[in-house]
Amino acid sequence: MQTACLNQQLAGARVGMRSSASRLLKAAGVRRSSTVSKAVSASALQLESGVCIVTGSSRGIGKAVALALGAQGCKVAVNYAGRKDAAEEVAQQIEQLGGEAMVVGANLGKREDIERLFKEVTDKWGTVNVLVNNAGITRDTLMMRMKPEQWQEVIDVNLSGVFYASQAATKIMGKARKGRIVNIASVVGLVGNAGQANYAAAKGGVIALTKTIAREYAGRNITCNAVAPGFIASDMTAAIDAKYEEQILKGIPAGRYGQPEEVAGLVRFLALDPAAAYITGQTYAIDGGMTMQ
Ligand code: NAP
């Protein structure tokens, strides 16, 4: 008798669990759990494509990201600050890979340039589905020698640029109730670095901003995640004095610098893969094990 009663209670609890689960799914715009698994398994086969803006994509990591998204058939806005020729070359490569591309010069340290970047893209393609905040600069020196301009320039491009571009993107994505933002932070934003007070503060700010955007927009089906690279082979790391290189490599368990394409693979997943739809507010270090805990 007791067992029957318990079974009844458990059955009731299971029904209760099912109905609260279906209430949650209904609230998320999905009717039945089988519909969810079918949708996930079907969409897992193919990445989505759409209109993407990749800031600072004429070189380095941004270029690799733009090519990776273009190769998925996306329409990619290739942004640059000064190197128009390099950006045009990236656009050509995207078209060869089967995507579409446009080139937009805009200084991410200037609000009016960011507004124009979004206007040019929406005038041409009507919307923005993916924003990759990649543009970044360094002005390294020890804190005691850091001039106000060195501090401000890095904060303007690496932090304020991410904020204003994300604000512009979420206006568009919020109306569409769909979008993905990926911010390129840095392991320096997690652990700090002597000689990079400006850069570390900006990247740490980007990580906190990522979580805030994720919280504010999760209900609108917009995800926002950060990728925190370690040492990646690019013009930025080519500027590091060779005398420090041996020591840097000693601190990387993988024993080598990462490649821009390796970062691009993670960004593509977060930006396009249906399987990443439930990931938001996270920061992924991609650093050959440098900052593992
Ligand atoms: P990079 O090779 O120096 O390339 C920088 C890119 O950003 C270029 O396309 C450049 O355009 C653009 N850019 C610079 N200032 C800009 C501005 N004010 N407005 C718009 N675009 C601007 O850099 P990277 O190594 O690929 O780094 C890309 C991102 O990853 C940065 O956010 C960086 O902080 C981050 N990161 C890099 C590493 C690394 O080891 N490389 C590690 C951690 C994080 P132009 O070609 O026109 O100058």
Write a concise keyword list for the protein shown above.
binds NADP nicotinamide-adenine-dinucleotide phosphate; 293 residues; 2 domains; Rossmann fold; disordered N terminus; single chain
Describe this structure in words.
The protein is α/β, with parallel strands linked by helices and 293 residues long. It folds into two domains: 1-47; 49-286, Rossmann fold (3-Layer(aba) Sandwich), CATH 3.40.50.720. It is built from eleven helices and seven strands. A seven-stranded parallel beta sheet has the order 3-2-1-4-5-6-7, sandwiched between helices. α3 (60-70) runs parallel beside α4 (84-96) and α5 packs parallel to α6 (148-176). It is globular, with a radius of gyration of 22 Å. It starts with a helix and ends in a 7-residue tail after the last strand. The structure holds NADP nicotinamide-adenine-dinucleotide phosphate. NADP nicotinamide-adenine-dinucleotide phosphate (NAP) is lined by residues 55-62, 79-83, 86, 107-109, 134-137, 157, 184, 186, 229, 231-232, 234-237. GO terms for molecular function: 3-oxoacyl-[acyl-carrier-protein] reductase (NADPH) activity; NAD binding. Keywords: Fatty acid biosynthesis, Fatty acid metabolism, Lipid biosynthesis, Lipid metabolism, NADP, Oxidoreductase. One of its GO terms (cellular component) is chloroplast. Its EC number is 1.1.1.100.
